[in-house]
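Two proteins, back to back. First:
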Amino acid sequence: MLVGSDVAGFDYKEVLLADLREDPRVSAVEDLGVTAEDLESESYGEVAIRAAEAIRDGRADRAILVCGTGIGVAIAANKVSGIRATVAHDSFSVERSVLSNDCQVLTFGQRVVGLQLARRLAKEWLGYEFDPASPSQEKVEVISAYEGC
């Protein structure tokens, strides 16, 4: 599991990182930054692309990314072929992001989602697994075929 943020999502990233490290379903967690020592070191795009490339290359299976709105990190991660990232604000969207769309990246906005809700949604998201035998597989394949994956 990867976790990352820019300066606008740093506080939530730190809390989510701690939660994930305590979750028995998570075998390993990697902090992709930014760090407290250098909050301005990277943009949301750099962090999100690094996370998405790690998933694409098989070095991780999922990531949670945080910026001010969650939109920027979702857009940046989605630029990496084979990656499906979404910003979510509610339980149903979190559920469907995995069960209907096989999303590997969940994003939040520190400026738009309360901390306790983000923590709850991250925990819920970890409990979902995409079923390749579901009717949604064909829909995900359309996206993958377009990308050439």
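And the second protein:
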Amino acid sequence: MAVHEARSVSGSHWRSAPLARHAMAYVLAGGRGSRLLELTDKRAKPAVYFGGKSRIIDFALSNALNSGIRRIGVATQYKAHSLIRHMQRGWNFLRPERNESFDILPASQRVSEDFWYRGTADAVHQNADIIASYDPKYMVVLAGDHVYKMDYELMLQQHVEQDADVTVACVEVPVTEASGFGVMHVDEHDRIISFLEKPKEPPSLPGRPDVALASMGIYVFATRFLMDVLRRDAEDAGSSHDFGKDLIPSIVANGKAVAHHFARSCVRSHAETGPYWRDVGTVDAYAEANLDLADASPELDLYDRDWPIWTFSEIVPPAKFVHDEEGRRGMAVSSLVSGGCIVSGAVLRRSLLFTGVTVHSYAQLENAVVLPYAQIARSARLRNVVIDRGVAIPEGLVVGEDPEHDAARFRRTEKGFCLITRPMVERLAGATSG
């Protein structure tokens, strides 16, 4: 057993990570994220902004770095420019002279001129030679589009101790909500008996009829074993070359697949009461997860200095609040305001402003997620909104008070959030001038 000093909820400190030092993290970041609607018109889901200054992919990358992994590869495909630019700016500190590496691996028809990445497994297989050049003993394959804090060293330890062919990270979810996930059916020893993709009747945990195990899209393999499996899969014309659809079910049927409970390796500070994992794959889930950060004791602690979320930080001045007169007072209540923001005689309530947002006098924002460099003009009243980067909200615009009127102008979700993008505002201005 590898020597390991774990980080507890009650006390945190750095520790050695011997298995992580022999591992490579491979992040699958090519997803379209179509359920995020217009938020992914120009960017891949992993590149979507989160938490005031980060991108979604920063969580998987930070977990790898904080776990002690120093070899990282990121496979990109769909609308990858902003994602690649972000990683070049924010993740260029890993140094080859320290046996560290950070490879950005766009789909580039490296194996055949007939196709790009055909699936998540193919996105790894096409870069097998690059992986081999680093000779990692273990591969930690990660989805790049979830929000969570996790110590992969603990998952690596379980993989080695149980001599598994694959270890699959799983999060416990109510059986009533499990139909939207890939669900692991396990025995009393957490060996995976079957893998079911979005089952109508999800299997529950042994002895816990109300709880199911949902895959987090995180897998640990011995590298040599993974390369053999990928090679066989690439030769199978009937395969969709996907981990969840092809590789994992095959290993479950023919090898040893083991479930790793996220609760065993989730990283929590004193302020966090339970395991936190979110698939922010819809506008509603995205808005709620961002706004939850404004709570007095949020479920996700971004202030945890022992497990930082690394990212690219722009050089901007501090946030500024100006004017102090009745009806025109720059103030924010239960809100997060990033650097470079100016709240000029406006009121924010339970809102989150990303870098460089300006909110002008007499404006009122409530339950608002405002992406970088948006401009909110005077007297706007905005409630339950997600505003895309660089949008200029016109003077006096009211959103969140008339559902039918909102739905006619913007993208309104089931839970009543309005997504506002630049083309929507431009169409609105055109209709007004016409």
